[in-house]
Amino acid sequence: MAKKSKIAQNEKRKAVVERYAARRAELKEIIRRPSSTDAERQAAVEELRRQPRNASATRVRNRDSVDGRPRGHLRKFGLSRVRVREQAHAGFLPGVTKSSW
Question: Which Pfam families match (predicted)?
Fold first, then answer.
């Protein structure tokens, strides 16, 4: 079980990323676009730099949706490897069967 404070911190980061996502995408497009002038590009870089550090999606950690475990996360289920194994054995994940060949 992850610390409640770490889970809460990650949730706050998700909210900040969502709030700034559209503007960040616009600024990055201006920076990448070859037709942008140097002044536009410089202004976009400056505005991007002034945004909060937590506005970057890279700062969000994928965590287990049940207990917040930060490592061994499987995107398909939104759970950690430990939780996937437990729930698969209990029959809570439809279509997931134990492998045998």
Answer: Ribosomal_S14
